[in-house]
Amino acid sequence: MSTFPIVRMRRTRQSEQLRSLVRETHLNVDQLIYPLFIAEDLSEPREISAMPGIMQWPLEALGREIERIVALGIPAVLLFGIPSTKDEVGSQAYAEQGIIQRAIQRIKAVAPQLVVMTDVCLCEYTSHGHCGVIHHGTVQNDESLELLARMALSHVEAGADLVAPSDMMDGRVGAIRRVLDERGFSAIPIMAYSAKYASGFYGPFREAAGSAPQFGDRRSYQMDPANVREALREIDLDIAEGADIVMVKPALAYLDVIRQVRDHCHLPLAAYNVSGEFSMIKAAAQHGWIDEQRIVMEVLTGIRRAGADMIITYFAPDVASWLK
After folding, report:
1. Which of 213, 276, 297, 316 would be 129's cystine partner, CB 3.0–4.6 Å?
2. For residue 3, is it within any domain?
3. How many domains does the structure of the chain reveal?
4. Which residues pair with 196 in a beta bridge?
5. Residue 108 annotated to the active site
6. Which domain holds residue 111?
7. Is there a catalytic annotation at residue 249?
8. How confident is the model over 93-150, as pLDDT tens digits?
9. Mean pLDDT of 75-101
10. Of 108, 249, 282, 324, which is the active-site residue?
11. Taking every pair of C-alpha atoms in the chain, what is the biggest distance, in angstroms?
């Protein structure tokens, strides 16, 4: 039997005030993490051609960008380093005076309250562009763990508040947790890139971070985009090894994975709104095909609605200004 006209769903949609009162999913600046690219061989900020408005930052200019981020109310940044020299084992990733180690110190001097997260992966620091040690043309899992743990420890010693391993080596969360605990950093959380897929959406990031593999691809260690049960296994393993926050990456084509992970575990859940997702929206907006602000807010709200507690996004400054 029809309930019309007694039930009229449009009644609570008549004004923005009513729509706001009944809104189920909320997006606010406290949920945003802004990625930053810090480059060692720059004297001036350089725009990334595939990511309009996103820069590679030299250390000398980093302070003013941090001040802008803090003024917008963004609570956290995620750092990626671009060293001036690379080698087979990514030694600049764990050098005491490496680019990220110095960047952390600069940021903390300007804004000690800002949460500084660091990406832990060797790909930006190795001459071959892969995320671990290479022998006989293959990434060596267990040999890479020691270097990743050294990298994480060096970031924490420099003042990082949280480390985020993204390499997808088996056992890396446990290796990092053990080293941090042994060195007196048991209070430092780990945000694991737990379900990181081998995705075509990373294309613009390769330019931003200078991290394209020099041979082959990363499908032997990043996840197959067709799999979701495997993602839940990865989540469980990282939790067992000591992860404090888990992540799904990318976000937009993996909303179903975010939802299943949210239903599967109770840890805080991050989602990475990656470079390709950013660049597609920017390109369409520049052609006048879409309303950029409306689309961005819709996309990020969708990621939240799927179950993410926090979103890593290059749109963070724009969204922070729109939400004010």
Report:
1. 213
2. no
3. 1
4. 249
5. no
6. 26-323
7. yes
8. 999 999 999 999 999 999 999 999 999 999 999 988 788 888 888 889 999 999 999 9
9. 95
10. 249
11. 73
- Nearest residue to 128 (alpha-carbon basis) of 87, 166, 81, 92: 87
From 86, 108, 196, 282, the catalytic residue:
196
3-state secondary structure the chain: CCCCCCCCHHHHHCCHHHHHHHCCCCCCHHHEEEEEEEECCCCCCEECCCCCCCEEECHHHHHHHHHHHHHCCCCEEEEEEECCCCECCCHHHCCCCCHHHHHHHHHHHHCCCCEEEEEECCCCCECCCCCCEEECCEEEHHHHHHHHHHHHHHHHHHCCCEEEECCCCCCHHHHHHHHHHHCCCCCCCEEEEEEEECCHHHHHHHHHHCCCCCCCCCCCCCECCCCCHHHHHHHHHHHHHCCCEEEEECCHHHHHHHHHHHHHCCCCEEEEECHHHHHHHHHHHHCCCCCHHHHHHHHHHHHHHHCCCEEEECCHHHHHHHHC
Is position 15 within any domain?
no
Using pLDDT thresholds of 50, 70 and 90, give the confidence band for residue 311. very high
Which CATH number covers residue 161?
3.20.20.70
**Looking at the domain assignment, is residue 19 inside a domain?**
no
pLDDT tens readout for residues 269-295: 999 999 999 999 999 999 999 999 999
